[in-house]
Structure formats: C-alpha cells, structure tokens
Amino acid sequence: HLDTPPTLVRNVPAAGPAPDRSRGRLRELAGLGPGTRVIAYGGRITTSRGIEETIAALPHLAEDVHLVMLGYGEPDYLATVWACAAEHGVTHRVHQVGPVAPHEVADALSDADVSVVHVRPTCLSYRFALPNKLFESIRGGLPVAAADLPDIRAVVEQLGVGEAFTGEDPTSLAATIEHVLADSERYRAAALA
Q1: 126: which of 11, 45, 48, 186 lies 20 to 30 Å off by Cα?
Q2: Which residues, 6+ apart, have CB-to-CB distance to 131 below 8 Å?
C-alpha cells in the first residue's frame, strides 16, 4: 500500500571500457600457464554456492580444466573444499587465489574461459537470486554456465552469454561447461556486447 512503488536498482559493476583479457589475473595468481582452461568462481567461498558441485564436475572434464576461486572463505568451509577436492582426486586442479578489491573483480576474472554461477536454491532468497558473480562475470567478458534458477536463467538467456544446467548431477554441470567451452567465443562476444 505504498504511495510510490519502490525502484529496483541492480547491484551491477559500473559501466566503462570493456575488460582486456591480457589484464586478467586468474592464471597468474593461480600459477597456471596459457594452455590451461580456467573455470572462474568469484565471491565468498561458502556453502550453497556450487563450489562442491563444480569440484565434483572436474573429473568429468579434460585434465587441462582447472577451477580458480577468487575470494575468501572461513577456515572450516575451506577445509571442506579441500576435502572435497581430495575425495574427487582433483586437488591439483583446484586453486584459491584470495580476494581482490571490489572494483578489480571483473578485470581479474577476464582471462578465465568460463564462469560457473551456481547458487543452490536452499531458500527463497537463493532461488530468486541475481548474484554479483553473474554480473561481474558478464562484465569480465566471460561465458557463463549457470544454475537453472528463474532469474539467473532469464539474464543468461536474454543476453545470450551462456547456458543453464539442470539438476544436481555433476555430469550435467560438466556437460554444460564443455558445451560453453566449445562455443566460448560466441558467448564471450555476447558478454562483451
């Protein structure tokens, strides 16, 4: 019963020149060479953000595909991440590189090959989330493999920046990542546009 309806302002990165992949920092920070394909994760390293699911998908991807996490997490959860990587035999393919300043996130991500935006719908807020990592990935010019949640899917499909995956099966996520990697330049061009 408000006299004036509220205005929705999305928390997206500021406009400016398109990022330059050569200024991306994930490979450098993780100590990876140019022959490595990088899955980017940006944000707080915590539960319900698809990190464990992405790690479980790694064994279903080529050996040159690595996960690089840009961000910070609590020691207890980081221990869970490393235990998950060990369980799946991919510890050597998982890297945590710490955070960068908020205004540097999109540029830091820009040398990755794909971004996974996977929020588990554990509550209504998460089901309808539009996380910063989605917009920072797009701003960084990255193709996106996204969770099949209503608003995330709508943005990814409307902008043509990637594909949504369904279900909790790691092979479904891996197949979507492979699909995006196979046509990455088309999705990258859409993200940059």
Answers
A1: 186
A2: 43, 117, 119, 152
User: 86 by DSSP, 3-state: which?
Assistant: helix
Per residue, what are the HEC states of 97-119? CCCCCHHHHHHHHCCCCEEEECC
> What is the pTM (predicted TM-score) of this model?
0.92
CA distance 8 to 190: 24
The number of C-alpha atoms within 13 Å of 173 and in the hemisphere containing its C-beta is 24
Task: Give, to the nearest 10 degrees, the angle between helix 132-139 and helix 150-159.
Answer: 10
Q: What is the Cα–Cα distance from 175 to 24, expressed in whole angstroms?
A: 25
Q: How far is Cα 163 from Cα 146, in angstroms, rounded to an integer?
A: 6
